[in-house]
Amino acid sequence: MELLDRVAGARMLGFSRWQLFKGLALAVGIMGVVSLVLSYSIPAPPSTVTMATGNKGGVFPYYGRQYREIFARFNIELELRETTGGKENLELLQDPESGVQIGLVVGGLSDGKHAPGLLSLGTVGNAPFWFFYSSNEPFDRLSQFKGKRIAAGPVGSGVRFTAEKILGKAGLNSENVTFLPFAASAAVEALKDGKVDAVWIAGTPDAPAVGSLLQDPSVRTMSFPTAEAFTIIFPELVRLVLPRGVIDIDRNIPPTDVPLVGSPAKLLVRSDLHPEIVQLLLQAMVETHGAREIFQRSGEFPNSTDTEYPVAPAAIDFYKNGPSYMQRHLPLWLSVHVQRAIAVLVTAIAIGFPLFKLLPLAYNWITRRRLFHWYAKLKALEASFDADPMDIHSADTRAEIERIEDAVSHIHIPLTFSDQVYNLRSHIDIVRRKIASRNNAQGRIAAE
Predict the structure, then answer these.
(1) For residue 371, which of 417, 433, 308 has the smallest C-alpha distance?
(2) Could you tell me the CA-to-CA distances from 116 to 63, 139, 161, 269 in Å, in that order?
(3) Residue 114 is inside which H or E element, if any?
(4) Of 96, 143, 162, 291, which residue is 20 to 30 A from 230 by alpha carbon distance?
(5) Tens-digit pLDDT string for the chain (448 aa)
(6) What span, in angstroms and rounded, lies between the C-alpha atoms of 237 and 230?
(7) Three-state secondary-structure class, residue 236
(8) What share of the chain is helix, strand, coil (3-state, %, to 5)?
């Protein structure tokens, strides 16, 4: 009943059923086009994304598992792809066919000029480089490792790259040491089995491989007393200190402060990664890396400091202003629909505001046009009447004037146009009287 009342009301305003149908079809068409445009411009986030991590037992897979748990709370599946480390992660990120959209890397491997299309979401912490070895006597110089077997990761991996760069500066190279491709957990086992004499590895003390070596009483940690010099030679490096007793106070591990060198670890993404996934990553980074740890203060990481890659604008805004209102109060799936609704509202305002001024003019024109139609009919009738002095079509003329008047009397238009309807009807009456006057005159002539 309510719909019928609305249709009846629309007809009282002067709209026919066909006009109403066309208007409804146009509205539905516009809504469909807007929906398609918004689905393309503001797509829903993917249900699955892939992240490249590193060798099993390393710190990057450890971080990846924490990210995966956070993503699961938002019903997004984060697939973790095991790799040889940062260099392979970079290669996968740059390959659009790899399916990898997220990757963790350390500094010094590449930069934005050599890896276009990648954006940084910021630095997640400082990843120290460790040099563990088995020996009855402590070593105080890197040159003492000449002739030794060193597990430095696979050829082409980030770990091997940093080992050759840093140790090479101290005179250790493939000519005087044997670099073997063991990494992470495999390197730990190789050291325990006597297959290698030392292990070069990257990661925080939380990483399983690093943690197991720090706790092993038969393994020593090489100190880098010249760490500051290394940071000058290689600006991407940072000097770190492992405090005495921080691993185990009761057993006094380590027995002294241990200077180390490290590199900032950063999270890189492809530039076409969905914005909602970027926001979810930023929240996961804060939750995973924001606490106090051995090599960082509480709240120090993550941050937008990255001198090698362009930082995503969304990340800069996140670190400056925190999560947006929608991120704090709306679930991930709903925020996309809210963004689309806001886009529709803004578009409607942008288009509707100027139309709001034009609609009254257009409505007046449409209404007056309906009256002009009958004015044109009336004028054509009068012209044909004047062109027929013998009035041979008198009966047809009278029938036409009656038809016009009947049609005008059934026009439904707003009250504001009533004066124009009455003007039209008065003009119809003038033409009728003109026709009647000629008929009377002809009647008198015929009677005489």
Answers:
(1) 417
(2) 25, 42, 21, 11
(3) none
(4) 291
(5) 444 444 444 444 445 566 556 666 666 666 556 555 555 555 678 889 999 998 887 889 989 999 999 999 988 999 999 998 889 999 999 999 999 999 999 998 999 999 999 999 999 999 999 999 999 889 989 999 999 999 999 988 888 999 999 999 999 999 999 999 999 889 999 999 999 999 999 988 988 899 999 999 999 999 999 999 999 999 999 999 999 999 999 999 999 999 999 999 999 999 999 888 999 999 999 999 999 999 999 999 999 999 999 999 999 999 998 887 666 656 665 666 666 666 667 766 777 777 677 777 777 777 777 778 877 877 877 777 677 665 555 677 777 778 877 777 777 777 777 777 778 778 778 877 877 777 666 656 555 5
(6) 7
(7) coil
(8) 50, 15, 35
Contacts of 200 (CB under 8 A, 6+ apart): 129, 130, 131, 150, 151, 152, 153, 159, 162, 163, 167
* Predicted structure pTM score: 0.68
b (16+ CB within 10 A) / e for 342-361: eeeeeeeeeeeeeeeeeeee
Going by C-alpha positions, the residue among 119, 56, 59 that lies closest to residue 93 is: 119
Domains annotated for the chain, with CATH where assigned, are 48-329 (3.40.190.290)
Distance from C-alpha of 173 to C-alpha of 159, rounded to nearest angstrom = 15
